[in-house]
Amino acid sequence: MENIKLIISDIDGTILDSNHQIDSQLPEIMKKMKNKDIPLVLASARSPIGMLEIADKLGLYHTPLACYNGALIGYFDKNKIFRIISEETISKVELRKILKILSENFPQISVNLYSKTLWLVEEENKWTKIEAEIVGTNPQITNFEGKSAHKLLVIGENEDIYQLLKKLKRSQFNEVDFYLSKDNYLEITSNKVSKEHALKEIAKYYGVPLFSTMAIGDNFNDVPMLESAGLGVAMGNSPQEVKNIADYISQSNDHSGVSSAVKKFLFN
Question: Distance between CA atoms of 180 and 221, rounded to whole angstroms?
């Protein structure tokens, strides 16, 4: 594995432990990676704002971020975008259709629209407050009319989200994908978006072949990325189905699984 030239890693359940704290050994590992000129790129369903604090703590000041599972890849600082490497937005026709289904059938579900660096809601509720505590920022309250979206995140009770997902799948959408990031978190993006797409765009940007990449993740939306990378690493806290496709299973996120894998394959 001495040929690894690029690492791409998920955040939640991977770099962050169950208390939302960064892998304690990773900042020291980052210094060694910089000496070897091996970048670590974060790839997450989070917005740029939800990723920047973590990137800053890791010293990733001149490294792109793959946000919204790869729907928006670029360089960011607070509410500014310095450079976009790649982006895919949800079809406006299908976005309007989804929002209509939600407003007419599931008014109890929280709808969160992400556009570039903005987190937008039409009203605050208990779910937006919980999400704000997790990501450390607050949404802007505005009308969704005419807005473009890199991602929709809908949050509610488990049963409500299950019923919504069933209805959306019956409604014949051709340009979007739906997936659960938690039992009560439904993520919606363009079907051109995936962490595999993010890996390929970032590898192309750095001029690194896929066989020289390492990808690290813990959940089902990480699977295409783990399968496409030269070395796919599943966290010890991953579901068994994710572990089954990985090349290597590391420690859990509560036991510094990311830094453990990096040390094993880059510095052992």
Answer: 9
Whole-prediction pTM: 0.89
What is the spatial distance between Cα 130 and Cα 14, in angstroms, rounded to a whole number?
Answer: 20
CB 76 within 8 A of CB 117: yes
Give the torsion sign (CA, 225, 206, 149, 93).
Answer: negative
Tell me how far apart the alpha carbons of residues 12 and 20 are, in angstroms, rounded to a whole number. Answer: 7
- Please report, in tens digits, the pLDDT of each residue of the chain (268 residues total): 559 999 999 999 999 999 989 999 999 998 889 888 999 999 998 889 889 889 999 988 889 999 999 999 999 987 677 899 999 999 999 999 999 999 999 999 999 999 999 999 999 999 999 988 877 789 999 999 999 999 999 999 999 999 999 999 999 899 999 988 788 999 999 999 999 999 999 999 999 999 999 999 999 889 999 999 999 999 999 999 999 999 999 999 999 999 999 999 998 7
The one-letter code for the residue type at 57 is: K
Tokens 């949404």 locate to 139
- The CA distances from residue 266 to 4, 32, 84, 154, 198, in Å, are 8, 10, 29, 39, 22
